[in-house]
Design goal:
about 350 residues; alpha/beta; Rossmann fold; three-stranded antiparallel beta sheet; 13 helices; globular
């Protein structure tokens, strides 16, 4: 990408968490781009939640998966890093080795941010991995019935209509969470910001609700691209259209900051989804192209679907090809293109 008269590798910042983020990062890693992954630190489920409760560190699971996606280590090393104990031992059962390593380094380095930078070097990570905050955060939600709940897993399990979410410091209740400066610098220097794919309320918004992260995403000159989920999620986005996803993002940040939306239009075959195995999936996200345009977004619709293991997921290569294609187009933030 030309910057003045000089060529530089396009800088792509991907913000999110959960299982969708590594899918995109694995494909982006094969492109000639400078990747920064900003990863949520508000997870409280599974092995991550148990470790967090015992040793008061940022939940490491999402960071571990992103690190494996961007690592250039041989596959055997990655398999060991990702290995999850199936022992019946009360302590080790269910824990991933990588989670324990990240937790240990967090204690050694007195914080998750420096720990992840150290481990990224050890893991030969191609890119940058930045925890959204240098401390564990709690996700809070207010529902349509005006009740509130704290905790990412509890919010999803409540199966109620979410009105809004926000984050708070787990260790410093009177302190407003903030991202460290390298996170903000990466957003402001980016050529493209990618949100998702991932759970709207529990993977994407927890990052944006950190005040200086949200402000940076609104102020950056980079094009902001939202990868809309293929399936709605139980307890979060049931009956949502693609326009509903954007509306919620804009309402939370009080600004129309999303420039472009990638929407899958390939239908998921009837009876294909195993809803017992993928119990968080509800049904396909409906399309509301008029609503998306009313939100000020450019809409790119295509076949981004990958069917595997009786579930519906994004095809990382197809999505990445579109992201790279967008880098060569005039910015949607230019009013002449809106």
């Amino acid at each position: 990408m030309l910057n003045g008269n000089k060529w530089h590798r396009p800088k792509i910042v991907v913000i999110g968490g959960g299982t969708g983020l590594p899918v995109i990062l694995k494909s982006l890693r094969d492109q000639d781009v400078d990747i920064t992954a900003i990863v949520t630190v508000a997870d409280d489920g599974g092995s991550s939640g148990v470790i967090r409760n015992y040793v008061n560190v940022v939940p490491p699971g999402d960071i571990r998966n992103v690190m494996a996606a961007l690592s250039k280590l041989p596959q055997l090393y990655l398999d060991i890093f990702q290995y999850r104990f199936n022992s019946k031992d009360q302590f080790f059962a269910g824990h991933a080795i990588g989670n324990l390593i990240i937790a240990a380094l967090s204690e050694m380095k007195n914080g998750i941010f420096d720990a992840v930078q150290e481990l990224s070097s050890m893991m030969k990570v191609d890119g940058h991995i930045y925890p959204a905050a240098d401390e564990p955060l709690e996700l809070n939600a207010e529902f349509a019935d005006d009740t509130t709940i704290t905790g990412e897993s509890e919010i999803s399990a409540a199966h109620k209509l979410i009105k809004r979410v926000w984050v708070s410091s787990r260790l410093h209740k009177d302190k407003q969470p903030e991202a460290v400066q390298p996170v903000i610098d990466a957003i402001m220097d980016a050529d493209q910001i990618v949100l998702g794919p991932g759970s709207l309320f529990t993977s994407i918004l927890p990052n944006l609700m950190i005040s200086n992260v949200g402000d940076a995403v609104k102020k950056t000159q980079a094009e902001v691209v939202y990868i809309c989920n293929i399936m709605t999620q139980k307890g979060e986005t049931e009956n949502f259209s693609d326009a509903d996803h954007i509306r919620v993002l804009h309402e939370h940040l009080h600004d129309r900051f999303v420039d472009t939306v990638l929407v899958n239009t390939k239908k998921v075959p009837d009876e294909y989804i195993d809803y017992q195995r993928w119990n968080e999936m509800s049904k396909e996200v409906t399309h509301d192209f008029k609503g998306l345009k009313e939100q000020g977004c450019r809409v790119i619709s295509d076949d981004f679907l990958e069917l595997r293991d009786n579930g519906a997921f994004h095809n990382g290569d197809q999505v990445t090809a579109e992201l790279v294609n967008l880098l060569g187009q005039p910015s949607w933030r230019d009013s002449a293109w809106r």
